[in-house]
Amino acid sequence: QHYFIQSNLRHSMMKVILFTFIFSSVHSFYIPLIAPVEYNKGQTIEIKSTQVDSVHTELPYSYRHLHYCLPVKEINYAENLGEVLHGSRIVNTAYTVTVNEPTDCKEVCKVTLEAKQVDQMMDLIKKDYDVHLILDNLPVARKYTSPDGKIELYHRGHKIGQIYNDKTYLFNFFKFKIRYHRGSTPGKYRIVGFEVESSSVPGKSACAAPTTEALELHKGTSVTVSYGYSVTWEEGTVAWASRWDTYLTSATNSQIHWFSIINSLIIVLFLSGLLAMIMVRALRRDIAAYNLDEEMDETYEESGWKLLHGDVMRPPNYTTPLVALIGSGVQLGATALACIVLSMLGMLSPASRGSLIGAGVSLFFFFGVIGGYYSGRMYRTFKGMKWKRAAFLTATMYPGLISSACFILNFFLWHAKSSGAVSFKTVIKAIN
Question: Which of 249, 357, 389, 430 has CB 3.0 to 4.6 Å from 82, enough for a Cys bridge?
Fold first, then answer.
């Protein structure tokens, strides 16, 4: 009995140790494939840019498409397949920060904008384009309050300029506020926040004394612009693992999404109920006619769905395209389900740009096995004889249509000089 008690105690201790290990592992969980980077005080970090885009257009541009200050040495950073398809082009900028060392004002350069370049900048400002900068893989955001003044929201990127009273102003001075969290070792810092406040400063220097005037752009008129920035550091209370919560919980159009979802559900329920009511009425009429037929002459002509009972299992005329579409649909459904599961597990975090698109493309090709299986099984059910043709059409019909459409649209993106245009060489390089 004494040995039995010791054995139970030993098993209980093992369970406690196991549960402690599990909970400690959960507590130290970070986003998969993303590890925190710790910086030393005084270390210089480059501010990078991903793209320039707008919610009103579908044409993203590279940061170098704008007439900003360029760094001494231009660097193009490696991109994955998802970033390439999304139009993100990670490049370095002329802005640098020193860890935990504020900068009051630093003039970067002066740029002379020709008349054509001024018109281009005014067009981008009119279309509400945002410049997306990143620091330690964290996008810059500007803070503002909700219309009722109760909630603080964040919007990714900073505006190129602003239109006020039918006048166009260019932002040329940026106040960066960086929040940090002390690392696991003394003297180490982790970046947990990156904010910006843009302003328009006229005159020969962006570091001039503040005035009530702003840098106005006039169509067809050249202008010399001085760009500058300042940096402030502030210790934040947000842990590194939660630094993306600010961006994920500041969706300004969440009410619109909920309204769209509820509206779609109501429409689906209404149409489903209407269809069910029509089917019930048709079935009741046919059943009543069938019961009445037993009392009438056997030569009574059948009507309704009973005329089709001999053609229910007849193969359709276009069997091969049908099974190809069914296989592609199963393939798409499996891809969507796998992406949802991976997102729930945290494998497709927004911290890893392009991961969702890249995973979707890769999983679509991987689940081609399932699509081919269901297509072949359906083709066999229809007693088809040209199975090689069906297999080839399943593998090429839907991807071929999508690739052809993207190839045609790519010409328009090339013509517009958009960063969304993808070259064949870029795709091969991203895949490798």
Answer: 357
Q: Considering only CA atoms, which of 76, 80, 78 is closest in space to residue 93?
A: 76
188-199 and 130-135: which strand pairing?
Answer: unpaired
Evaluate if residue 112 carries a pLDDT over 80.
yes
Report pLDDT digits (tens) over 368-414: 999 999 998 888 888 888 888 888 998 888 888 988 888 888 888 88
The span from the CA of 59 to the CA of 51, in Å, is 10
Taking a C-beta distance cutoff of 8 angstroms, is the pair 225, 213 a contact? no
> Would residue 203 be called left, alpha or beta, if left means φ above 0 and alpha means ψ between -120 and 50 degrees?
left
Between CA 18 and CA 10 the distance in angstroms is: 12
Tokens of 129: 């384009």
Residues facing residue 44 across a β-bridge: 98
- How far is residue 22's CA from residue 324's CA, in Å, rounded to a whole number? 46
For the chain, first and last CA: distance in Å? 65
Give the pLDDT of residue 16. 41
Distance set, CA 329 to CA 319, 324, 326 (Å): 15, 9, 5
pLDDT of residue 185: 78
Tell me if residue 144 falls in helix, strand or coil. strand
Other beta carbons within 10 angstroms of residue 327's beta carbon come to 28
CA 26 to chain centre: 27
What whole-number distance in Å separates Cα of residue 305 and Cα of residue 284? 12
Is the per-residue pLDDT at 74 higher than 70? yes
Distance set, CA 89 to CA 224, 416, 422, 431 (Å) = 27, 16, 11, 16
Give the burial class of 229: count Cβ atoms within 10 A of its Cβ; 0-12 exposed, 13-18 middle, 19 or more buried: buried
**What is d(CA 57, CA 179) in angstroms, rounded to the nearest whole number?**
32
pTM, whole model, 2 decimals?
0.70
Average pLDDT, the chain: 80
User: Which amino acid, 259?
Assistant: F
Q: Is-contact 98 42, C-beta < 8 A? A: yes
